[in-house]
Structure prediction request, 118 residues.
Amino acid sequence: QVQLVESGGGLVQAGGSLRLSCAASGTIFSINGAHWYRQAPGKQRELVAVITSDGDTNYADSVEGRFTISRDNAKNTVYLQMNTLKPEDTGVYYCNVNIRAYGLGWHWGQGTQVTVSS
Prediction:
């Protein structure tokens, strides 16, 4: 049974930084691609950052240059470093990770709240 546990959210002032972690546990052979999404109150979930199995990254225009997605395969963990945070970055952040266990599939984290005050 694969589980993803997110951590690192919280309350921060505008201009501050947070690092989100998404740790996979269980019998895992490899972590492949991963996504970070966020959902603001009253809005649809949006894709924020992508890392492919080859390590290529891509970002939403709204976070380009401020957020960095990375992966530590030895720790089975995906990260989202968020710098120069803005109030509009507020929302619940979810990781979505492609994991090879006894099968291959996409798994979701439980979400972590990020609140940026002005």
User: Anything to note?
Assistant: The chain has a mean pLDDT of 96. The chain is about 0% helix and 60% strand. The two ends are 41 Å apart (CA to CA). The first strand starts at residue 3 and ends at 7.
